[in-house]
Protein: Ribosomal-protein-alanine N-acetyltransferase
Organism: Lactobacillus acetotolerans
Amino acid sequence: MLKKFKGLNQFFHLAQNKVNLTFSPFVVTIDKQVLQVMQASDDDIPNLLMLEQKVYSGYMPWDELSFRTELNKKKNTLYLVVYHVSTLIAFIGVRFRSREAHITNIAVAPEFQHQHVGTFLMQLMIERARQNGSECVSLEVRVDNELAQKFYQLLGFEATFIRKNYYQDIATDALNMVLWLKPHQVNKRKKLKF
């Protein structure tokens, strides 16, 4: 997850190429659940905050201002929300840079976890990254969140490096993970060993 830290602009500059952020809402059935997928708006912020609080057992990594700021980055950021009936059950955000798509945030309600909703959202954004010509998709995950790391590895992400004290509010390091979309990139990299 993207967190606030000094020097943010050096890491997350606007994409040089114009990216396609148009998104048409649709309905999808996942594990016999009918879900609505749509682009997030400011109206979703109260639901985003409630879901985040539920997912993180009361802790809220992002506040209202963080979500509002991200949702207003219309030139290079896409946030999607997933509703079951009228309840927000998942969301994902991605920021497109010159050659990279960076997953800034993803959450799935505990009662909908392990039902392929997270996988569906990740694959949706990975496909959007391919369509926009991204060379890779990246994200950060807490170093102690082994379950999430395994989930990302199943999608093809590889650990690249550790960002020390990335989650400053909880004094925790982050593991940067990358999924290379262009085959020639895979051979040029060295794998991080733990």
Observations:
- The longest strand covers residues 87-96.
- The radius of gyration is 16 Å.
- Helices lie at 8-11, 45-55, 64-71, 117-131, 146-154, 183-186.
- Residues 1-16 have pLDDT under 50 and may be disordered.
